[in-house]
Design a protein that fits this description.
This protein is α+β, with helices and mostly antiparallel strands. It is built from 19 helices and 24 strands. It has 3 domains: 3-123, SH3 type barrels; 127-204, no CATH class; 244-555, no CATH class. A 5-stranded antiparallel beta sheet has the order 4-3-2-1-5, with helices on one face. Strand 1 and strand 2 (11-20) form a beta hairpin. It holds the Pfam family RNB. Residues 637-682 are annotated as: Disordered.
Length: 682
C-alpha cells in the first residue's frame, strides 16, 4: 500500500494513494475524504508508517531542529528538504527526518525563503537578524500585554493604560499593546471594559471622565489661548443718539446684543438692535480670527464655559454698560399705532450702553402684567420694554401666520447652579436646578429682536449679491431638517423668508463671518459684492459651514450630556426615588420638573402624553443611564391626549439625550455658564 505526503495550500497532509494519472493522484485521507492532488504537490511517497504516525513523529522531530544551527549548515543557493535532512541529521536520514526537515524549514520563513515545492533558500544574514529582533519584540510585547492584563484584572491600572485611557476607549489603535491589554483583561475577568477600568481605579470620577473625554475629542491641544491682543478699530465711528440696554443672564460676559427704542409718543418709533462689532477690528486670517475659526463656538456647561475668544479680546468688544461700544446697528422704523414697518437701515457706529439688564434678577419683576399696564412698572426702561414686548408679540404672531401654526412653549428651560466652596473636587458640588418658563417676557423680547435682525440682514446680503451663511428649512414636515447654506432660502420653522446667524459674533464663528459681509453691505451698498471678504462660490464659506456643523453639534452634545450628569447628581444628592413624567414613545418618558428623558419599564404600551409616576431603581453617572419602573398612571386613561404636548421645538435637536455610552473598544477582536440660548433666537 502506497501513501503520499503533499502540500495543500501551505498545509501538509498525508493519505493513501487510490489512483494515479500522468499529472494527478486521487488520495484518501484518514478521515475518509478523497481529494485530487497534482503530482507536483506530492513531496514524499512511502509505504510505512501510517500517515498520521509519520506526521506526528515528524512534527516532534521538527521541534528539535535548532534554526540557528540549521541556517549555518544549510548550503548556499536553492536546496531541497531531503538534501537538508541529510546534511543536518546524517546521510542516512530517513523518511521521518526528511518530513521533520520539511516542516521546520517551512515554518521558519525568516530563516529560509521558499523557492518552490519542497525547495528553500537561506535568507540573507541581515534579514535573519532583523526578523529575530522583530520576533523578540513581539514576544516582549505579548509578555507586557499579559502583565498589564493581569494587573487590570487584579484591580490596578498600569500607568501607560491610565495615560491613554480615552484613546483606548474612544479612538483606539487596535494594534497598540495598551488596547490589547484592556481587551484581554476584560475577556479574562468577563467584565465590561468600563466596569473593569472603574474597578481598577482608572476612572475614579464620573465628572472628570465626561470632561476629559470631551477635551480629548475636541481640544486635544488643550483649552488655553495663545497670547493675543484685541485689534483696535481703525474707523472713526459716529456716536448713536440712543441709550441702549442689553438683556442677559448674570453670568454672561460675551454681551453680543443690546436694544434701543426712540420716538415713543411721536407716532413713529425707531427700534434699534445693536450687535457687538468685533468684525470691525478682527480681519480674516488674522491671529485672532485663526483662534476663533479653530474653536468655532463658545462651549457652555453648568458652572463653566470655554469661550471662542480669549477674555481680553471679548472685553474689548462686549457691550458693557457705561461705555460707547462699537456696534453694527439695525434700525427699524415702525408706525407706532399699527407696527407697520416703514424702513430699515444698517449703521456702523458707537452705541452708548446705558445698562446691562439681567433677566435672572428681573424675571419676577418685569412681568407680562407690568409690561401691558395691568400692574405697576417700577423699573428702568419701563416704557421702552413695554414697547419691545408689544412689538415682540406682534412679530411672533406674524411669523406664526407664515408657519401655519403657533409656536408651543410647553416645556420649560432649566438653569443649573453649582454651589461649593471651591475646595471640593469638580463634580461633587451641590447642584441647584431651577425651572424657567420658555417664552418669558424678557426672553420673548430678545428672541424676536434677534430673529428680526437675522432675517433682515439675511435679506440685505441677498439683495446686494453678497454671500452669507444661512439657515433654512424647506418645510415643517416630519424629518425635514434645518440646513446651512450660502444662499438665502425660507426657514419654515421660523416663519421667515430667510435667516442668517449674525447676532452673536463673540461666541459663534458663523456670526462673525456674516458680520464681515454685513459690514461690507453697510459701507458699500450695491457694490458690496466687489469688496466683501467672501465672494460668491467662495470655498472658504463651505469649509466654515462644514467645520461649524461638526463642532457645534459636538459642543451641544457635550452640554446635553453634562447637564444630564448634573441632573442625575441632583437626584442622587436629594435622594429622589420617584418622579412624575409624561410618556413619549417606545418606553421613553420625560420628567415633568427636570430636564430628563429616560426609559421606564411598564410604559411601552402607553399612549403618548400619558402622565405617570415612576420609581427610580438605579442610576449610573458614568454611562448617564437612569433605570425606572412604572408605579402608577396619574391621568384618566380615557381622557383625550393633550394637543401639542411634547412637540419638539422648531430647529431644535428632536432626539433627547437618554444616556448610554458608546465605546470604540471591541471585545470581539481576536487580536460655569448659563444654558445655551435657543437654537436660532440668538
Amino acid at each position: 500500500m502506497t501513501y503520499a505526503l503533499f502540500d495543500d495550500a501551505g498545509k501538509f497532509l498525508a493519505g493513501r494513494v487510490m489512483s494515479e494519472a500522468d499529472s494527478s493522484m486521487q488520495i484518501e485521507l484518514e478521515s475518509g475524504k478523497r481529494v485530487k492532488v497534482k503530482t507536483a504537490n506530492v513531496l514524499l511517497r512511502f509505504e510505512k508508517p501510517q500517515p498520521a504516525e509519520l506526521i506526528a513523529s515528524a512534527q516532534a522531530k521538527a521541534a528539535e531542529i535548532d534554526l540557528d544551527l540549521a541556517w549555518e549548515f544549510a548550503p548556499e543557493g536553492e536546496f531541497g528538504f531531503a538534501e537538508f535532512a541529510k546534511d543536518y541529521f546524517s546521510a542516512q536520514a530517513g523518511l521521518e527526518l526528511q518530513a521533520a526537515a520539511l516542516f521546520r524549514l517551512f515554518e521558519a520563513p525568516h530563516y529560509f525563503r521558499r523557492a518552490g515545492k519542497g525547495q528553500f533558500k537561506k535568507a540573507p544574514e541581515e534579514i535573519v537578524k532583523a526578523a529575530l529582533l522583530a520576533i523578540e519584540r513581539k514576544a516582549q510585547q505579548a509578555a507586557q500585554i499579559d502583565t498589564w492584563a493581569a494587573e487590570l484584572a487584579a484591580g490596578s491600572t498600569p500607568a501607560p493604560i491610565r495615560d491613554q485611557l480615552y484613546k483606548i476607549l474612544f479612538k483606539p489603535d487596535k494594534n497598540a499593546p495598551e488596547y490589547k491589554a484592556v481587551v484581554e483583561a476584560a475577556k479574562r475577568s468577563q467584565r465590561a471594559p468600563l466596569d473593569l477600568l472603574k474597578e481598577a481605579g482608572a476612572i475614579n470620577s464620573p465628572y472628570q471622565f465626561h470632561w476629559q473625554r470631551f477635551l480629548f475629542e475636541q481640544f486635544p491641544k488643550g483649552t488655553g489661548f495663545p497670547a493675543l491682543q484685541a485689534p483696535q478699530i481703525a474707523d472713526e465711528l459716529p456716536l448713536a443718539a440712543v441709550q441702549a440696554f442689553s438683556i442677559d443672564d448674570s453670568q454672561t460676559t460675551e454681551i453680543d446684543d443690546a436694544l434701543s427704542v426712540t420716538g415713543l409718543g411721536s407716532g413713529e418709533i425707531t427700534f434699534g438692535v445693536h450687535i457687538a462689532a468685533p468684525g470691525l477690528a478682527i480681519q480674516p486670517d488674522s491671529p485672532v480670527d485663526k483662534v476663533a475659526r479653530e474653536r468655532l463656538s463658545t462651549v457652555y456647561m453648568p458652572g463653566w464655559k470655554l469661550t471662542m475668544l480669549p477674555d481680553e479680546v471679548v472685553q474689548a468688544y462686549t457691550l458693557i454698560e457705561g461705555r460707547d461700544c462699537p456696534a453694527v446697528s439695525l434700525y427699524v422704523r415702525f408706525d407706532e399705532a399699527t407696527l407697520e414697518v416703514k424702513s430699515t437701515e444698517t449703521r456702523l457706529e458707537r452705541v452708548p450702553i446705558a445698562a446691562n439688564l439681567r433677566h435672572d434678577q428681573l424675571d419676577a419683576v418685569i412681568t407680562e402684567a407690568s409690561l401691558t399696564g395691568e400692574a405697576p412698572a417700577d423699573y428702568a426702561f419701563a416704557p421702552e420694554l413695554a414697547f419691545c414686548f408689544r412689538l415682540a408679540r406682534h412679530l411672533k404672531a406674524a411669523r406664526e401666520v407664515v408657519r401655519g401654526k403657533p409656536e408651543n412653549f410647553n416645556r420649560p428651560d432649566y438653569n443649573f447652579k453649582l454651589d461649593g466652596s471651591g475646595s471640593e473636587p469638580a463634580g461633587s458640588e451641590k447642584v441647584i436646578i431651577t425651572e424657567r418658563k420658555r417664552g418669558a417676557p424678557l426672553d420673548l423680547i430678545v428672541s424676536e429682536a434677534m430673529i428680526l435682525a437675522n432675517s433682515t440682514w439675511g435679506g440685505l446680503m441677498g439683495d446686494v449679491g453678497v454671500p452669507g451663511i444661512y439657515r433654512s428649512q424647506a418645510s415643517m414636515a416630519p424629518g425635514v431638517k434645518v440646513r446651512m447654506g450660502v444662499r438665502p432660502a425660507p426657514h419654515a420653522g421660523m416663519g421667515v423668508a430667510q435667516y442668517s446667524w449674525a447676532t452673536s459674533p463673540l461666541r459663534r464663528y458663523v456670526d462673525l463671518v456674516n458680520q464681515w459681509q454685513i459690514i461690507a453691505c453697510a459701507r458699500h451698498g450695491r457694490t458690496a459684492a466687489l469688496v466683501a471678504p467672501f465672494k460668491p462660490k467662495d470655498a472658504t464659506l463651505f469649509s466654515v459651514i462644514s467645520a461649524f456643523d461638526g463642532a457645534y453639534s459636538a459642543y451641544n452634545g457635550f452640554q446635553q450630556a453634562i447637564e444630564r450628569f448634573w441632573t442625575l447628581r441632583w437626584l442622587e444628592q436629594n435622594e429622589v426615588t420617584e418622579l412624575d413624567a409624561s410618556v413619549m414613545k417606545d418606553g421613553l418618558v420625560r420628567a415633568e420638573t427636570l430636564p430628563l428623558v429616560f426609559r421606564a419599564l411598564g410604559t411601552e404600551a402607553m399612549p403618548r402624553n400619558a402622565r405617570v409616576r415612576v420609581r427610580i431603581t438605579g442610576l449610573d453617572l458614568l454611562t448617564l443611564d437612569l433605570h425606572a419602573n412604572l408605579l402608577v398612571r396619574l391621568d384618566d386613561p380615557g381622557a383625550a391626549p393633550t394637543e401639542g404636548a411634547d412637540e419638539p421645538m422648531d430647529d431644535q435637536d428632536e432626539a433627547p439625550a437618554t444616556g448610554g455610552l458608546t465605546l470604540a473598544i471591541d471585545l470581539s477582536d481576536g487580536d460655569a455658564a448659563p444654558p445655551a440660548p435657543a437654537a436660532d433666537a440668538g
